[in-house]
């Protein structure tokens, strides 16, 4: 079974892309974003949203279509439930035994965008989804 994304109509190949370009926000930048997506092999490309992030960076949301499909029946995945990640205590023990000093980790983002939420979940002592944040680890100095 060949599958493709759809937006308004089944199998229309419509997708949404978002990205930043290191240019001042103006009509030329908007056209550059459209041409970039066309160069990636998409068609029916339309820049539906754009805004300046700073004097030299611009953000774009683009709708486009692709004729590419994927044979879903041939997709193979490893469904094993095995989780090789270390728990809180194993991480602390590993750092203590293998590194022998605190790790210094700095989390940062520019501005007040959605990345601050992710950084907070990673860094903050309370953590996220039953996983402690780095501030709680004895062998981590988190900023």
Automatic annotation (TrEMBL):
Coiled coil: none annotated. GO terms for molecular function: cobalamin binding; metal ion binding; protein dimerization activity. Signal peptide: none annotated. Residues 2-78 form the D-lysine 5,6-aminomutase beta subunit KamE N-terminal domain. InterPro entries: Cobalamin-bd_sf, KamE_N, KamE_N_sf. Pfam families: OAM_dimer. This is D-lysine 5,6-aminomutase beta subunit KamE N-terminal domain-containing protein. It comes from Muiribacterium halophilum.
